[in-house]
Design a protein that fits this description.
Length: 387
């Protein structure tokens, strides 16, 4: 379309002034209509390179940290964390826990006579002794507990006193320290298809060695109920093998309630109901851990108690230790002072930072958005030539 040419004002020498030229150019741009041109780029989609995510055009928000929001936030976090830590410590101290290290019982305890165990072997004083025969009060073989694998040469008896009633439910744990259950070769030595109940060929079980025929002197026990998570139970099932097709692992041959004298199963164990085994197979992430072994729903009154242990699992050769623990729980779980102290320390750090920032703001406040702190407003340092 045509445009009308307007006269340009000139100065005394006949040249157009700069403001007149700018005004004339703006007037011409208003009179010229420009039709928009559609971009030839593809429409942005989920997998397109022109999406808002890949081009970093997503809406974003970033808080502006000022003394007026940082200092109150630190005070609030301090006043929340410190009381929570105190509450956690109070309820943790209400948990009654008895722990006894019996790693060296067979080597240090005398036969027949109770003596005091060395200090540091438990969180309360206790006595121990070795036995040369299975005592008459030992539990007999039953559907819930089968101590028939007990070896008289490896029996250790621990006696301790409960000063105050332990309110139920009361849990019994076994505890291992300096024991790396998450070691790669150990984790690989399992076939979950077989544990689920599927019949697996022997050639597919090379990672699960040793199989029957190897000489290993370790015993696994079978658990009672209500100590494993439902998810763990779903990983095990009834075996598809026939009784004559399988043999027990070398760890289980001493359990006469499960294995015949010729080394064959009396019946195929149902691992979906063996909760102690399920807890053991759940790999621990740290070298010191404890796992549930039993659960008592009744209160335990004060008095002397004796625990009979068949100590057949050797751990001393690689510097590990084993212990058993009797404990009840609170609404935050078992005895755990670390959680309470961690909250108190974190709250104390928040409180200290809040006080420091508040003092700094009161003594030498800084105005928000002060342009004098910009780099181009700072006085440049003199440059000296280096010869």
């Amino acid at each position: 379309m045509g445009t009308e040419k307007r006269p340009t004002r000139r100065n005394s020498q006949g040249a157009s002034t700069l403001p007149d030229l700018e005004r004339e150019n703006r007037d011409q741009l208003r009179e010229v209509s420009v039709s928009p041109v559609r971009s030839a780029s593809p429409s942005p989609g989920r997998h397109s390179k022109h999406s808002a995510f890949k081009q970093q055009r997503l809406p974003a928000w970033q808080p502006i940290l000022t003394p007026y929001n940082v200092i109150p936030s630190l005070f609030v976090m301090a006043f929340v964390f410190i009381p929570l830590g105190v509450v956690f410590l109070i309820f943790s101290e209400q948990v009654q826990e008895y722990m006894f290290d019996y790693t060296t019982c067979l080597a240090e305890a005398p036969i027949g006579k109770f003596v005091s165990a060395p200090s540091g072997y438990g969180n309360v004083p206790f006595e121990w002794r070795r036995l040369s025969s299975i005592p008459t009060y030992a539990p007999r073989v039953s559907d819930e507990f089968s101590p028939a694998y007990m070896d008289a040469a490896n029996l250790c008896e621990v006696r301790f006193k409960v000063e105050k009633e332990i309110s139920g439910p009361v849990f019994q744990y076994y505890r291992l320290s300096n024991y790396y259950q998450n070691q790669r070769l150990y984790v690989k030595s399992v076939d979950w298809h077989q544990l689920k109940g599927q019949a697996v060929e022997r050639a597919d079980l090379e990672d699960c060695a040793p199989l029957q025929g190897d000489s290993i002197d370790t015993v696994y026990a079978f658990p009672p109920k209500d100590i494993a998570w439902p998810y763990d139970k779903n990983r095990y099932g009834v075996s598809e093998y026939k009784l004559e097709e399988i043999r027990p692992p070398p760890f289980w041959v001493k359990d006469k309630s499960l294995v015949n004298s010729d080394g064959t199963y009396k019946k195929i164990p149902n691992l979906s109901e063996d909760e102690r085994f399920q807890n053991w197979m759940k790999v621990a992430g740290l070298p010191t851990f404890r796992k549930p072994y039993g659960r008592c729903t009744e209160d335990i009154p004060p008095g002397f108690y004796t625990v009979l242990i068949s100590s057949t699992y050797e751990v001393e050769s690689y510097g590990a230790k084993k212990a058993f623990v009797i404990s009840n729980t609170s609404w935050i779980g078992g005895k755990n002072t670390f959680l309470g102290y961690a909250y108190i320390v974190a709250g104390t750090v928040f409180l200290a930072l809040a006080i420091v920032f508040l003092a700094r703001h009161l003594v030498a406040p800084r105005r928000l958005g002060d342009a004098s702190f910009l780099s181009w407003n700072q006085e440049a340092a003199p440059i000296t030539a280096v010869q």
